[in-house]
Design brief:
disordered C terminus; alpha+beta; about 10% strand
Length: about 525
């Protein structure tokens, strides 16, 4: 019995050992799997992190290469400036105040670079000034840029802020600023530069501020979705006071339960003060009404009535006095066959006429255009070419263009016709392309709007302008030739999109091969 029992017990023990062994094996396998997963996960993360680090390193290396290329480009730009100086360019105007040779060279080089590189004149001027500094007194800054230790924007800030420092202070200025430039952002570097420039010349702070005040200005830059940026460059004291005043008004409205955000109320309060307030400046005319010109294709006006925008617009933005809106309703005529009444109706309903244009800004939404034309005191009717959408030509015979010709030219050319985007034609002068005094007339093909700045460029530098007649009486093309001999074409502003032609088989007569060959006219399909 004892033996049997021992055997049974041994058997039981063997069974238990086998069970524990299987459990241990399962546990070991589970542990190995988890261990392997623990190994694989960090391995994958390390691979991904290594790829990310590699891509970041490549980007930063690209930034250093771009900095080196910027240093080389600065050399080229300064070489261009020195080549222009070597030409001894002279003032080209026939009379009036003359420009000095330095001014002629500066405007020549700035406009040449701006037009050729498709920059603004301000950007071109900054590039030229920066290149002049890097290739001149700022040798340490140039070396740092060549080695990729700083970016081009850092170098630009360093040179620009030191423009009033004397040459014997440049070395000390660079010794202080360059270490900061290698570790600071451009915005933080700008503060460092201002401080470094202010400290060595406290005696000139008042005069420098007065000089800066003389440069105060208000600028308008179009944005997207019918918005724009209205920027004021003005003394800091006034700027802070305006901002605080707008904030106080916004908070008072917010506390009164206005649902708008503080940011929205701040803007709306400034708009209300600007549009509805009266000026306190002695000599300023009170009650001035804004003159706004809006070009609206006639087909854009053919549509169901829209809801009142006033219900959607904050009350603060409603002007106390109506704005004088002078829209130009464009009558577009379809001269080609096959435009059915149904097609024309559908064209109008789908805004085929194209977007309305606010002068000095650009396209505006259809609802705003409908409301402006609804309240407009009158319309000017302009016939347009149905193919190109360009206003048709007609002439006058006197020096000063009459009002209707003046209006037509400013409609056809909505901006200054120098090959840079600058001011709207409404604020420009109408210039005779070929001088009136030389026997050329005042007509549609010899007039174009030029802002004051580029009117001077035309007369004082070697830039030249020509107008080439358009096809079938359409508006002329304008070609400018730079002092370096490069040509740039300025096209008229399309004031209406082409009217579509709806062709049906019943209205189309196919020309014969003989007719097609003799007229060189492609079939209308």
């Amino acid at each position: 019995m004892n033996r049997t029992n021992l055997t049974d017990c041994d058997g039981e023990f063997d069974d238990d050992d086998d069970g524990h062994q299987h459990d241990r094996q399962r546990h070991d396998r589970h542990h190995d799997d988890r261990h392997q997963q623990a190994i694989n996960v960090p391995s994958d993360r390390l691979t991904l992190r290594a790829a990310y680090a590699s891509s970041v390193a490549a980007v930063l290396e690209g930034e250093r290469e771009a900095a080196t290329a910027s240093a080389e480009q600065a050399t080229r730009i300064d070489r261009m400036r020195r080549a222009a100086l070597a030409l001894h360019l002279a003032d080209q105007s026939a009379g009036g105040p003359k420009w000095s040779p330095d001014v002629v060279v500066q405007r020549t080089v700035v406009t040449e670079l701006a037009v050729g590189a498709r920059l603004s004149e301000a950007d071109a001027r900054r590039k030229i000034d920066t290149a002049h500094g890097l290739c001149g007194a700022f040798a340490q800054t140039r070396r740092a840029l060549e080695h990729g230790l700083i970016s081009y924007r850092h170098a630009e800030k360093i040179v620009r802020h030191a423009r009033l420092l004397s040459d014997n202070r440049i070395d000390d200025y660079e010794a202080r600023i360059l270490p900061a430039a290698q570790r600071a952002s451009v915005q933080r570097l700008e503060r460092e530069c201002r401080a470094a420039v202010e400290e060595p010349q406290p005696a000139t702070a008042i005069q420098r501020h007065l000089d800066a005040c003389a440069e105060r200005r208000l600028t308008l830059d179009p944005g997207a979705d019918g918005m724009a940026y209205l920027t004021m460059f003005l003394p800091a004291v006034e700027a802070v006071a305006i901002f605080n005043r707008a904030t106080d008004l916004a908070r008072s409205l917010k506390n009164a339960g206005d649902p708008r955000t503080l940011t929205q109320l701040r803007v709306d309060a400034v708009c209300d003060l600007d549009l509805n307030g009266e000026p306190s400046i002695p000599g300023a005319t009170r009650g001035i009404r804004a003159h706004v010109r809006v070009t609206v294709p006639a087909l854009t006006l053919v549509a169901p009535s829209a809801p009142q925008r006033a219900a959607l617009q904050p009350e603060a933005l409603q002007p106390a006095e109506p704005i004088d809106v002078k829209p130009t309703a464009l009558e577009t005529s379809a001269s080609e066959p096959g435009l059915s009444e149904r097609g024309a109706s559908e064209a109008g309903a789908s805004e085929t006429g194209g977007p309305a244009n606010l002068e000095g800004y650009g396209p505006i939404d259809r609802l705003t255009a409908l409301e402006l034309t609804r309240d407009a005191p009158g319309f000017q009717r302009v016939l347009t070419d149905p193919v190109t959408g360009i206003a048709l030509n007609y002439g006058r015979q006197r020096y000063k263009p009459p009002a209707d010709l003046d209006e037509l030219i400013r409609t056809v050319h909505s901006e200054c016709t120098f090959p840079l985007s600058c001011s709207a034609s409404a604020t420009a002068d109408l210039d005779h392309t070929k001088p009136f005094g030389d026997g050329f007339g005042t007509d549609f093909g010899n007039l174009s709007p030029l802002c004051s700045s580029h009117h001077k460029v035309k007369h004082h530098t070697e830039w030249s302008i020509e107008q080439h007649p358009g096809i079938d009486g359409t508006a002329p093309m304008i070609t400018w030739t730079s002092p370096a001999g490069f040509t740039y074409v300025v096209e008229p502003t399309p004031i209406a999109r082409p009217v579509p032609t709806f062709v049906t088989p019943s209205t189309v007569t196919r020309p014969s091969m003989k007719t097609r060959a003799s007229t060189d006219t492609p079939p209308p399909f």
